[in-house]
Amino acid sequence: MKIAVVTDSGTGWTQAQAEALGIHYLPLQVKCGDDEFLDGIDITVSQLYARLKQGEMPTTSMPPVGRVESLFETLKQEQVEHVIAVPLSAGISSTSEMIQAAARRAELPLTVIDPYTTVNTQGYLALSALKLAERGVEPAEIERRLKECVDHSNTLLVPDDLQHLKRGGRLTPLAAALGSMLKIKPLLQLNKQTEGRVDVLDKVRTMSRALSRMADVAKSDGFDPEAYEMTVLDSEAEEGALQMIALLEEAFPGIQIHRSAICPVIASHTGMGVVAIQYVRKAEGIS
After folding, report:
1. pLDDT of res. 169
2. Among 55, 125, 152, 257, which has the minimal tally of Cβ within 10 Å of its Cβ?
3. Which UniProt keywords apply (predicted)?
4. Of 151, 183, 206, which residue constitutes the final position of a domain?
């Protein structure tokens, strides 16, 4: 069976990186003031960070409709028999609905895997789907294995800029003011339980305590360095990221940790100075 895998720029990949892997790519749109960009094509993470540091409040939206429809028409012409899509969490984007509509119009069988998060976990699921498809695994079995991964995954992040969360409507002005004054750090999460939405898990004093709390949550979630992928992410918060890595290495001897930048779709909501971790159980049949 000829299977195609589709994902979007929520992975943090550029279009060139996705194409090199053999995965079809849809760019989210990023708007900064009067400027509009295609994420992963004509704006980079560093360029977005520069705008954030200037006080801009970028917004993101779904990939252009024409690109989505054109992709599925092309896949149909290439005689693809089934599409597996791993879009950005439906809790923070309607990209999944757009993909489903395009698949119906093209009359292409489609399986959608909601990662209930973004960035590295989303990318891991898309790449695992491709590897399993290349090994001849049927779509229904790929879906079962990847949903098992999703069931055992979590994204935890602690923002430094509460004012940015206030501007985005995720914290009231009073809560942001009190939080800044008392040095309170909200620990946020995205996972299946939150339906892929950014939710407050805890509130702690100081960044150091927030980072320690993230390591504790990973322990309580049953994180196993042999069975899971772990990534530490940041938006120009290297000191915090290195501290997080040290905490994880102490808690889980022998752990292998990936490093990544916070992608635009998350950074646009949380601002700079974010430290995050993502962990996901490895897919069955993927070493």
Report:
1. 57
2. 55
3. Lipid-binding
4. 151
Structural domain contains residue 176: yes
DSSP state letters, 206-244? SHHHHHHHHHHHHHHTT--TTTEEEEEEESS-HHHHHHH
Q: Look at residue 262 and tell me if it is in a domain.
A: yes
| Residue in this structure with the two tokens 């791993």, named with its chain if needed | 86
The 10s digit of each residue's pLDDT in 79-106 is: 999 999 999 999 888 999 999 999 999 9
Residue written as token pair 């090994």: 135
- Give the pLDDT confidence of 15-38 residue by residue, as tens digits: 999 999 999 999 999 998 889 999
* pLDDT of amino acid 52: 86
Q: Are 12 and 144 part of one and the same domain? A: yes
Q: What is the pLDDT of residue 124?
A: 98
Instruction: Return the number of other C-beta atoms located less than 10 Å from residue 94's C-beta.
Output: 12
Give this prediction's pTM. 0.93
Please tell me the distance from the alpha carbon of residue 140 to that of residue 71, in angstroms, as a whole number.
Answer: 22
- Please provide the DSSP assignment of 17-42 as one string: HHHHHT-EEEPPEEEETTEEEEBTTT
Average pLDDT, the chain: 92
